Request: fold
Amino acid sequence: MSSLQGIFLGANKLSGSLPSIFFNMPSLQAIDLGDNMLSGALPMLMFDNLPNIQYFSITGNQFSGQLPPALHKCKNLQIVSLSKNYFTGRLLPETGNLTMVTELYLGDNNFEGAIPSEIGNLLNLEIFSISINNFAGPIPFEIFNISTIQIIAMEGNQLSDHLPTNAGLFLPNLRQLILGENKLVGTIPISISNASQLTLIDLSWNSFTGSIPSTIGNLRLLQWLNLGFNNLTNESPELSFLSYMERCIHLRKLVLDNNHLTGFLPKSIGNLSLSLERLQLSDCNLKGNIPLSIGNLSTLIALSMGNNEMAGSIPTTIGRLHVLQVLNFGGNRLQGPIPSSLCHLGSLSGLGLNDNKLSGHIPVCLNNMTSLRALYLSYNQLTFTIPLSLWRLSYLLELDLSTNSLSGPIALEIGNMNVLRILDLSTNQLLGNIPVTIGDLKDLTNLSLAFNRLEGSIPVHFGALVSLEFLDLSYNNLSGQIPKSLEGLLYLKYLNVSFNKLQGEIPTRGPFLNFSAASFMSNKALCGVSRLLVSPCKEGASFPQILKYILPSIGLIMLASSISLAWTRLCQRRSANLSGDTDLSPLATWRRISYQEVLQATEGFRANSILGEGSFGSVYKGTLLDDLVGHISDFGISKLLSDGVSLTQTITLATIGYMAPGKNMDLKELSLPRGMCIVLAFY
Reply:
């Protein structure tokens, strides 16, 4: 082992602390233990016996603590990779002693403090990466004097102050300048355009002010420019610096979001790089129309101009962007119809046209956009019905059509959108019942149908929306009860059914334990627990309510009995006229019929004795002991009574002559099944 020069054990799922075997191998030139699960602190004496080490990589582990000071004694080190660990402490000035280092990776740790100016002594340094740490203070100007440096990556720290005015003058080899997500201020140095090899500039999420230097257009190799989320301004009515960017023929990404670039887009914007894939100009106070030439940027994958003051109509030339995947024009003042040319964007996955003044109907051809995953058309002036073709977008994840003037019913075909997660149709003029097929949308987490004219009941099938977290059905004309099936929606955190015509008991289990009175306001017929500020529920249906359903049916049976009796008399009179018999004795002799006799006549109310059935009872044919044949009708009053209603109410009809058992029978001994009311009609 004394002559071993390299140990390469990267990506082997090693765990535990660093083995001491590495500490006494003076011949070692390379150690690679990257992408394992090693942990603990590096031993303080680790580098005392590694005088020849040139390559040291422990990236992607779980090491912690401070770096051993002896590391700075390894004068032959060329590549040091300590990124993606949990190291703490400061970067010591002695780091400047590693004059042979070409690549220094310290990113994604917990280092803090200032960057030592001694880094400027590393005259062979090509890559300096300290991203995602807690370094603070200014960036030492000495770093911008290292002519060999190719990549400066410092994003995600607390770095502050200005960039040196000569930032790009002495960096002929610089390819990437990544300083995003810091606290840098001041203007962007014009000298940055002297670093002619730059391909990537990221100064986003800082506090830079002033205008964007037009000289950036001189960086002919530039592929990525991200200046988003700063306080940059524009001095002319037109964003003229975009015209200078036409020279960057390799430009692929141009991100200027969230600045104060107040002005108009140049009509020549379509002359930007034919390689441009991403153009982001959201939240920039842009005014005027969207230039027609935008359709020339045929390689665009993402186009975002949301939250500006753009006016006019959506250019039909957008339909030429056949590889476009994301289009965001939301939050502007765009008018007119949604152009049908958008339907040519077969690769589009996200379309945001919300918060504008668009009018007319939703294009029927939207179903051609089979890659669409998110569609936002809310807060416009769209009218007419929702086209059936829209429900054929079976891969749509999010759909927001809220706050328009859409009318008509919600089609049953909505159930085809079986991966939908967010559905918002609120604040429209939708009519009819809520489709039960919404219950088939098992992935739905947010559903809002509020502020419409929907009627009917809440579908019981909503209980199958097992992923639902948000449900708003308020301000409609819904009636009936709140389905108890909703008690099974374990993830439901928000419910609003207020301002409807719902009735009955509010469910009490599952998520309903956490809802307040605000969820159920202005439904006068709802009842439940007192904390919901509704009336307490009665224990069962009242007898007058039952009579409302039973008496009309009894009346029909009595009418049938009267007709039957009248027919019998007519037949007897005809018989008397034919025979000359003048006997006027009573046509019928009334007698009491016991329940047991009725039971025997109908063979125990067997199914083969049934002549017909209705909503509240059955009609049987039976032959009594004296061969008298009759219709025996059983009204299932028990179907209308809850368990809390006493049998006394059930028997009341018997005492007024409509039940077979004798009225003098003791109620306790009554063998008539609970809730049975019998009417006999003979013939």
User: Anything to note?
Assistant: The two ends are 116 Å apart (CA to CA). The chain is about 10% helix and 25% strand. Residues 543-579 form the longest helix (37 residues).
